[in-house]
């Protein structure tokens, strides 16, 4: 089958999903999904070759630690004002977001749009970051826990900053 035939077949497959101008870049999504799965498989295979076996079970404390750290790192990458320089080639500024955050949307087409959508979505990034933390727990658990602890501490600090500001706004602050 020719490339044109494959393109026509793909267009027919996705025709009912959305109008062509509103259709997500499915081919790029599929490649990104395959890349994530291949990367995880290669990471765990490489870890095993170097003598790092999967643990019998994952400790609850590691799940909580990496879960909170994943949340924070995914928000830093996808929403933080200071990280806008890394997202800017793939995104367009929309408006201010939460504290120290901005709202952006993906721009462009194909790979540019796909990477933009990944970079502005903390939920989408969460899978990649959680996978990296879990691979890190297998290969370098001490280093991974330290990095995750920094991000978890920052998350706790953020919540305390927000609570303090809310208390101040209600007249419960110091001075």
How does this model look, in words?
By secondary structure, the chain is mostly helical. It has seven helices and two strands; from the N terminus they run ααααββααα. The chain has helices at residues 3-14, 26-49, 60-79, 84-87, 110-119, 122-139, 141-169; strands spanning 91-96, 102-106. A two-stranded antiparallel ribbon has the order 1-2. Strand 1 (91-96) and strand 2 form a beta hairpin. The longest helix is centred in the C-terminal third of the chain and has 29 residues, at 141-169.
List the SSEs and their pairings:
Blueprint lengths: L2 H12 L11 H24 L10 H20 L4 H4 L3 E6 L5 E5 L3 H10 L2 H18 L1 H29 L6
Antiparallel strand pairs: 1-2
Helix pairs in contact: 2-6, 3-6, 3-7, 6-7
Low-pLDDT residue intervals, each spanning 5 or more residues: none
**How far is the first residue's CA from the last residue's CA?**
76 Å
Major pleated sheet: 2 strands, antiparallel
What's the alpha carbon Rg, rounded to whole Å?
Answer: 21 Å
Q: Helix and strand string, N-terminal first?
A: HHHHEEHHH
Helix and strand content put the structural class at: mainly alpha
Q: How large is the count of helical segments?
A: 7
Helix fraction?
A: 55-70%
The portion of residues forming beta strands comes to 5-15%
Average of pLDDT:
91
Give the strand order, joined by hyphens, for the main sheet: 1-2
Task: Give me the count of strands.
Answer: 2
> Per the principal axes of the C-alpha atoms, what is the gross shape?
flat
């Amino acid at each position: 089958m020719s490339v044109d035939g494959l393109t026509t077949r793909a267009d027919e497959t996705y025709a009912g999903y959305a109008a062509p101008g509103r259709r997500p870049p499915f081919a790029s999504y599929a490649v990104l999904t395959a890349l994530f799965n291949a990367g995880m498989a290669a990471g765990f295979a490489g870890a095993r070759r170097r003598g790092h076996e999967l643990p019998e079970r994952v400790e609850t404390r590691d799940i909580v630690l990496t879960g909170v750290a994943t949340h924070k790192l995914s928000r830093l990458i996808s929403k933080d004002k200071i990280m806008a320089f890394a997202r800017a080639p793939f995104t367009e500024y929309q408006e201010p977001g939460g504290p120290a955050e901005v709202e952006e949307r993906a721009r462009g087409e194909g790979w540019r749009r796909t990477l933009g959508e990944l970079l502005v979505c903390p939920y989408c990034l969460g899978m990649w970051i959680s996978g990296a933390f879990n691979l890190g727990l297998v290969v370098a658990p001490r280093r991974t826990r330290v990095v995750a602890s920094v991000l978890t501490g920052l998350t706790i600090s953020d919540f305390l900053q927000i609570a303090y500001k809310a208390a101040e706004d209600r007249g419960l602050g110091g001075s």
